[in-house]
Amino acid sequence: MQPNFSxxxxxxxxxxxxxxxxxxxxxxxxxxxxxxxxMARSKASLDRLVEEISRAGGQAKAYELDVRNVEQIRxxxxxxxxxxxxxxxxxxxxxxxxxxxxxxxxxxxxxEMMDVNLKGVFFCCQAAGRLMLEQGYGKIINVSSQVSVVGxxxxxxxxxxxxxxxxxxxxxxxxWSSRGVNINAVGxxxxxxxxxxxxxxxxxFRDGVLARIPAGRIGTIGDVAGxxxxxxxxxxxxxxxxxxxxxxxxxxx
Length: 253
Description:
single chain; 253 residues; alpha/beta; seven-stranded parallel β-sheet; 8 helices; 43% helix; globular; EC 1.1.1.47; Glucose 1-dehydrogenase; oxidoreductase; glucose 1-dehydrogenase [NAD(P)+] activity; SDR_fam
């Protein structure tokens, strides 16, 4: 039997879609045929994305969502299911990534990192899971990081939050996979986006990163999108509870 990589007409949510990886993932899912509900804290920040997807022949609708607000998560996810009739795919991409030395971390910084990167992901998973379990099918993809399995300087809170995503993914897979809901994570290396360009375009920083990547190049949003579309498709129906690293071999060392 040939694997089925199609997500044509599937209903997908992408959180944190107003910029960077989330912006590109929404475009990639739409280009692959999914109908995409794009979410960010400001609905207005999504207007350009929706317009670009529509102009390319895809279908997208914008929703305001702050993943720190649990009641809003439940309401917005329910609204998507009502608007589109079901929910097939959720990509939990919203996250914070600003680094800080461990001795400088404040309680507010720690709490915000965990509220967005871990608590927000869990309650998005829960809201999606409740809908998907009822329909007996669904794919949840959590955006983790290569530093969920290796450390990085100034990453105490960030690495801890992403490591938590990996464990959360495993537990939810144990609880939900027998009822048709697959849940996995992707772990990108450094990805070139407008937000990372300032650091990655610095020769010194870039050379330091490339020295750790056996594949010899910085990641692209397209690299991450390939992994996400695979995990969102029927081709990955027996894949659940895993972390798919998109790191060019960084963590193989």
